[in-house]
Amino acid sequence: MGASTVWSPLTRGVFTINSTKPRLKSMPLYFSLSLTTSLQQVRRAAAASMSYDKQLAAAKKAAFLAARLCQKVQKSLLQSDVQSKSDKSPVTVADYGSQALVSFILEKEFPSMPFSLVAEEDSEDLRKEETRETLVRIKELVNDTLACNGMNYISPLSEEDVLDAIDRGKSEGGPHGQHWVLDPIDGTKGFMRGDQYAIALALLDEGKVVLGVLACPNLPLTSLTSHDRHISEDKVGCLYSAQVGAGTYVQSLDGSPPTKVHVSATANPEEASIFESFEGAHSSHDLSSLIAKKMGVKAPPVRIDSQAKYGALSRGDGEIYLRFPREGYREKIWDHAAGYMVVAEAGGVVTDAAGNPLDFSSGRYLDLDTGIIVTNQKLMPALSKAVLESLKERASSL
C-alpha cells in the first residue's frame, strides 16, 4: 500500500526473496538420508535468517483493520438488547467482515505473488437470498472500516468483492509454498459476552510458521492477572507480532511503539499460574486441575477465551497454558498457528501432550497426541511429567 495510508504506527520493512532449493541426484540410501537431514537443517536455519518484514507489516495492518471492524460490532452488540446467545447475527457479521478485510488487504499488498489463505469461513451461507441483509451489512462495515482508517482512496467493495475475498480462505495449506492462516474471530463466545477474543493471523512457509500476529482488542496493556477478565476502565487493546528469529513484540492497537516481550522466568511450579479455556466444553478443566495438583501449582486457574492466552503468556502474565479438548475433536491450524509463533519467539515452548512439536504442514488440521501444552523452558520438564502421569491416571479410571 502507498504512503497515503495513515497507518504509520505499524512499520514496514524489507522483503527478501527465498533461495531456490537444491536438487538431490541418485546416491546411496544412507548418504541420501544423511544429506536430506542436513538440507532440512540448512533450510530451517535459512528460514530463521530470512526477512519476512514486509509480510509481517501487512499482517499487522490487516489484523489492525479487522480488530477495528470487530470492535465496532461488539460495541453495538453490548449497547443493544440483543444478549441472547441464540442470536448469532452480530458475531456472524464480524466474523465474515474480519475475514473479508484480512483477505482483501493481504492480496492487495502482494499482487504479484501467489495468494493462499487457510481460514475458517466460506461464503456459501451468505450467497443465499435469506442472508442478503447480512451480506449488505458486512459490505458496509468493510467499506466503512477501510474509509475510516486512511484507505478511502480504495474503490468501495461490491457484494461480490466481499464474497470473493471470503472464499479466498478455502486453501488447504500444506508443506509447500506460502500460506496465510487466519481465524477471523477466535473466541466467539467471549466476543458475545464482551470478554476476550482475538484476530489470529500467521504465515506458513514450506510448512513452518514464520510469523504470527494476534490482535486482542479487549486485552489490558498491563498484566492480565491484575485485572478482572471483563472489559474494565483500564487501557485495553494489544497487538502482538512475532517473526521467526526476531522475537515477539506487543504494542497498543492505538499505535504505541512496539515493546519486546519474553515469557516468565519462573522455575518453581508453586509460583506458577495456569491459563485454560473459559468454556469447559473447549478443554477439560478436571484434567487441568489434576495436572496442576501434581505440579504443586497453588494459584487458581485463569480462564479466558481465545488465543489471547498465548499473548498473555508471551509477556509473562502466567506460566502455563493447557488445552485438552473433548475426545474426537480435531484442532484446526488457525486456532494455534499465530499463538504458537508469538509464544515461541518470546522464549516459550509449545508441544502436544506427548512433547512432540506441533506440525502445521498437514493441511487444515493438527494431528495431535491428546492436547496442547505451553510453558517456559524451565517448567516444561515438570509439566510434561505431570501431564503424562495425569493422562495415565485418567485412562486407568475409565
TrEMBL record:
Cross-referenced InterPro entries: DPNP (IPR006239), Inositol_monoP_metal-BS (IPR020583), Inositol_monoP_superfamily (IPR051090), Inositol_monophosphatase-like (IPR000760)
Keyword terms: Hydrolase, Magnesium, Metal-binding, Multifunctional enzyme
Residues bound to Mg(2+): E120, D183, I185, D186, D335
GO molecular function: 3'(2'),5'-bisphosphate nucleotidase activity; inositol-1,4-bisphosphate 1-phosphatase activity; metal ion binding
Keyword Magnesium: yes
Family: Belongs to the inositol monophosphatase superfamily.
Official protein name in the record: 3'(2'),5'-bisphosphate nucleotidase
